[in-house]
Amino acid sequence: MGATTEQLNEESTMSHSSESIEQTLHSSTKASFSSPVERWMATNLAKAGIIINGPNPWDPQVHNTALWDRVIRQGSLGLGEAYVDGWWDCEQVDEFISRIISAKLNEQVTGRWVVLRHWLMATLFNRQSEKRAYQVGEQHYDAGNDLYQAMLDPTMAYSCGYWHEAKTLHEAQLNKLRLICEKAQLKQGESVLEIGCGWGSFAEIAAKEYGVSVTGVTISKEQKKLADERCQGLPVDIELKDYRSMEGQYDKLVSIGMFEHVGPKNYDTYMSTAHRLMKEDGTFVLHTIGSDQSKNGTDPWIDKYIFRNGVIPSLKQISESVEPYFVIEDVHNFGPDYDKTLMAWHQNFAAAWPELKDQYNERFYRMWSYYLKICAGAFRSRSLQLYQVVLRKRLDRLPRYHSVR
């Protein structure tokens, strides 16, 4: 539960145990606090090495002191909306968020009613049903191919790059795509189903370099349009449909950055569908963001403005959903690489903004910049991970699986 205004008033009258925090507050900010709420926030932020209006690049510069009441009422939703509204700025929002999460301050200020409403919606309703599946495509992935072409590397891969021995974003994304192909043990002439194909980056690489035929499914019209163009002349078929409606069987399955949109109420359906669609001796490579805690919902600001209806699964939730259908052959976590990937995307986005700003507006810039940086901060704090999980059916005649890195 988040702190109430009454609790804040009470806490503000008490002496704090840490003398160093008091000294930091007074010597570093030389500020007089306009309210008990602001003082309470300043004291707690100081525990994470954050100073309101301080000199560090991760210190928030507050333009409207009503910010703190908004944060107490609405938690992360209020913090994000206030940033987009211009109530505060911060040079390194990513480091600001990383420090908050590492110090567990996000658990103290949640905006209890916002979180409760979000939890009830996730618990009582299937927010990732087949009817609602296209919402995130319309809201996020159809935001404009020009935006994504400017932000991403030439592969148009919109998921974590693999920075092992990579010096550039493009190298990291090619590494990731080829790593998945190797883990899936693709062989020429095989059929591959990609659940959530994005703009066709995996399909293009797999078809060109490994000689397989790929069927990709997406819920985004803009993604399908560009994927069709990229894969023209290759044995690639891009379909605009929900994965649950797919038929047939494939030698291999791949899903990259799509499981985050499935939701706990559909994990069993997802795994049973994958099991039905994959041949007996097939291999399934699942690439997904993972949370350090099992949850039914996601951050309210991210849900409202970026990824509608999304849920980040924990490794426990992934494992439990897999149990009836597959054996887990390998788990590979390279979550810190997503911090680097997101910051590279932000650098590209900021550099391209002069050409993009006529199609968008300043509020969009602040929203998108905030999204990329807070996600980077979450990975930096290690509260988010990146898992590649290799799955096969439970058959004793399959040869031993040897993974690659």
Overall description:
The radius of gyration is 23 Å and the shape is globular. It is built from 17 helices and nine strands. It has helices at residues 5-12, 19-29, 36-46, 67-74, 76-84, 93-102, 112-124, 135-141, 145-151, 169-183, 201-210, 221-230, 267-277, 300-305, 315-322, 336-356, 362-380, and strands at residues 61-62, 88-89, 191-195, 213-218, 236-240, 250-256, 278-291, 327-333, 384-392. The chain has 405 residues and is of the alpha/beta class. The strands form two sheets. The chain has a seven-stranded mixed β-sheet with strand order 5-4-3-6-7-9-8, sandwiched between helices. The chain has a two-stranded antiparallel sheet with strand order 1-2. Helix 12 links the parallel strand 4 and strand 5 (236-240). The longest helix is centred in the last third of the chain and has 21 residues, at 336-356.
What key attributes describe this structure?
seven-stranded mixed β-sheet, alpha/beta, 9 strands, globular, disordered N terminus, 45% helix, 17 helices, two-stranded antiparallel sheet, 405 residues
